Amino acid sequence: TVLLMANHGALTLGDTVAEAYDRLYYLERVAQVQLYAMWTGRPLRKLPEPIIEKTYKTYGNNKMLYGGRKNAEWHFDALKRILDRKEPDYAH
Question: Of 31, 35, 22, which Cα lies nearest the Cα of 79?
């Protein structure tokens, strides 16, 4: 779940902290890419509906597993490894 609140920002929810973080990460990434596209000043093109539907069917259910784990778990573990190296005090 992603909730955009006027004058307050974004709130993401998931079954785990990893899922909530993953949704927030990709929400920010999508917003960044849209801003870059808008900054070009050129008209934006909408993807054809069949491509949107196929992409959602493939990736939108958040049930894809790699090594028996969801993408969000791999992503969150990678973030923790980065923090372990750069800011080890976060864990205490």
Answer: 22
Token reading at 83: 């923090």
Based on the number of CB atoms within 10 Å of its own CB, is 6 exposed (0-12), middle (13-18) or buried (19 or more)? exposed
Residue 58 parent element (H or E): helix 49-59
Here the tokens at position 87 are: 């800011």
β partners of residue 9: 5
3-state secondary structure of 38: helix
Q: How far apart are CA 78 and CA 22, in angstroms?
A: 11
Instruction: List pLDDT tens digits, range 4-61.
Output: 999 999 999 999 999 999 999 999 999 999 999 999 999 999 999 999 999 888 877 6
Q: Where are the domains of the chain?
A: 2-91
Q: Is the pTM of the predicted complex or chain greater than 0.70?
A: yes
The number of residues making up the chain comes to 92
Rounded-to-integer distance, Cα 56 and Cα 75, Å = 20
